[in-house]
Amino acid sequence: MKTQASRRSISRVIGVTFLCLVSSTACFGSFTTLHKVYAWNRSVDPDKWAQWGIFTAAIIVPVYPSATIFDLMFVNSVEFWSGKNPMADATADTGEHIAMQLQSDGTVGATVSAPDGRAQHYTLVREPGAISAYDEHGELAARSSAP
Question: Is the pLDDT at 27 greater than 70, yes or no?
Fold first, then answer.
């Protein structure tokens, strides 16, 4: 009987030691999963009361605690030991580049360069409740309304 009890004690010590080692390295991470849940909550509805309600529900369900534990035990540990965050967005360089310059009239000149060297020129204009992009011929190319 003493042997079985001592085996349980040893396995508990090993388990606690493992958890301490993993969680102690995890605090150096960026908590990407938790930040993604937070960003999602902020994007659902701009009303602060709706965001609070979603946050409260996500604590009860428990979305936020699960994201935190996942970050602590997996994501941040991998990030700490490998230097790479497995939850980070993978962004590939498409070769497109944009150069922007503020003009004296308050507009912004934007040049979008493609990998093959082609360039498109736009003028960004602030309008009441929107920002509009006009091409080099003065034609409306896009409009984004303010939220």
Answer: no
